[in-house]
Amino acid sequence: MIAQSPDSGQSAGKGSTVSLTVSNGPKTSPVPDVTSYDLGLAQQTLQASGFKSHITYQPVTDPSQDGVVLAQSPVGGTQAPQKTKVELTVGQLAGTDTTTTTTPTP
């Protein structure tokens, strides 16, 4: 409740009207679906829509998934309050073993 009339502690006569003002809660907006976007574009899109982002990287072996949003929470299309942090799972190309052994030639 945001307000009431008459104020708390005041008496009201029998049959009189008591007015209450209540909040509908925080303003919500649809979360953009940024799965399959590259990370930079995903963050720009979320920010432009009033959301924040948090990134978790997941190793991938497919080079086409490197730097791409694989999943998000809350999912795109759902309603969430402005400034909600959207968790992004972003592909990060797993490194290949580049250790080289050199044997000297006699």
Topology:
Elements: E1 3-5, E2 19-21, E3 28-30, H1 39-48, E4 52-60, E5 69-73, E6 79-81, E7 85-93
Any descriptors?
7 strands, mainly beta, 3-stranded mixed sheet, 9% helix, 106 residues, Trypsin Inhibitor V, Chain A, two-stranded antiparallel ribbon, 1 helix
In short:
With 106 residues, the protein is mainly beta.
Supply Rg.
Answer: 27 Å
CATH topology of the domain at 27-93: Trypsin Inhibitor V, Chain A
String of helices and strands = EEEHEEEE
Instruction: Indicate the mean pLDDT.
Output: 86
- 3D shape: rod-shaped
Quantity of strands, as a count:
7
Q: What percent strand?
A: 25-35%
The helix tally amounts to: 1
Regarding CATH, which class of the domain at 27-93?
A: Alpha Beta
Q: How far apart are the first and last residues' alpha carbons, in Å? A: 88 Å
Task: Please tell me about this protein's structure.
This protein is mainly beta and 106 residues long. It has a domain at 27-93: Trypsin Inhibitor V, Chain A. The protein is 9% helix and 33% strand. The protein is built from 1 helix and 7 strands; from the N terminus they run E-E-E-H-E-E-E-E. The strands form 3 sheets. The protein has a 3-stranded mixed sheet. The protein has a two-stranded antiparallel sheet with strand order 1-2. Strands 3-6 form a two-stranded antiparallel ribbon. The chain is rod-shaped and about 75 Å long. The model is unreliable at 96-103 (pLDDT under 50).
